[in-house]
Here is the input.
Amino acid sequence: MTRPGAPVRLLLADDHPVVRAGLRAVLDTEEDFVVVAEAATAERAVELAAADDFDVVLMDLQFGPGRMHGCEATAAITARTGAPRVLVLTTYDTDADILAAVEAGASGYLLKDAPPEELSGAVRTAAAGQSALAPAVAHRLMDRMRTPAQALTRRELEVLQLVGDGLSNQQISKQLFLSQATVKTHLVHIYAKLGVDSRTSAVAAATVRRLIRR
Amino acid sequence: MTRPGAPVRLLLADDHPVVRAGLRAVLDTEEDFVVVAEAATAERAVELAAADDFDVVLMDLQFGPGRMHGCEATAAITARTGAPRVLVLTTYDTDADILAAVEAGASGYLLKDAPPEELSGAVRTAAAGQSALAPAVAHRLMDRMRTPAQALTRRELEVLQLVGDGLSNQQISKQLFLSQATVKTHLVHIYAKLGVDSRTSAVAAATVRRLIRR
DNA sequence: TGCCCGGTCAATCAAAAGATTGATGTCGCG
DNA sequence: CGCGACATCAATCTTTTGATTGACCGGGCA
Here is the structure.
């Protein structure tokens, strides 16, 4: 993908101008990197990635409320043949985010608090066609492998969503035509899978993992 | 505070190297600004602000788990006589954060997704001894003034934030060094102001109105 | 000075939520 | 067919939460 001697062509996708300037400052000073373009939205990143020829895309995940998510953009970009490598660069390292990014075809997952050397190292790794995970992220993935995936069932997510909307067990049971006992049973399972012990902490955990709509 | 002709001396306080580089890139290119130092922690920012002579400090709020919060640092810095102006620069614009920052003595509150011009403009405003609020932030404060009925107090927002984080009354009381009775009292007031009757629905309402950080 | 508001705390009762155990029916799969 | 996963419901008990009432203190303000 990258010819030796030719610089690595980069696309920066982040909604924060300051962060883009920082990435440019950090990466453009490397002799073998050249920042070709910036995108302030995920949609724009997809456009640019299709129109121009990049080696690596640095992709944020959050692009403000109502905007396309970085994961969708990553999937859209990597779906094409001869697509650039996508390095996800975000603030948070939640399981759901990491898995979603990897599933979407990301070549790496970095945290924004990473030191510049780690950043440029990861870009080189990705440009060479290999995977680049931040140490902290790799650690989380290992953790997850050890503990078997606890996916919530459709019904459980349905109940959890209503809990997040602020409904009581009583209200949920009416809404879903269930008994309160059943709602409680679902909640017990949800708490176990999320590793929490109350509805509010379940909502907090689910929010962080983006299991429910807010 | 600032002599005409002399450059504005800046201190950048943010735990993300990339963001610091971005701020430096954006601000250092302005002729009348000079970035004198950077701090990767709030503690370090307080030290530097006391030791050296700055005009404006750009202060992040979140410095990673377990670290001093930007608000504390802001209070510590502005408490001294002849202290520099502190501009809070953060990702979120929740009521609780804004109020806490202003109360801590911040001269302004900016969002990280602000365009560079807004950033440098705010720095100049702060250096001139005036207040600088991002338009989005100012709008929130206006909203809050207009509808005093549902205005939560600073303490109530603090409690509500912890509720949203999934903490029990017991945990909240320990965290804030209160009795559970006091936490309950605050909750009663919060429920009344938000027009709800349970913690989860309070969190749902607060999320919609962006009263708390999620 | 007196008053209100914000923050603090206590005691009590009622309601909701959580923990535990156990049971039934359906469905897909080897 | 038997087995496991999912969904449903019941009964019981403990813990947490919410409702209500009342009280104290400090600061700001008329």
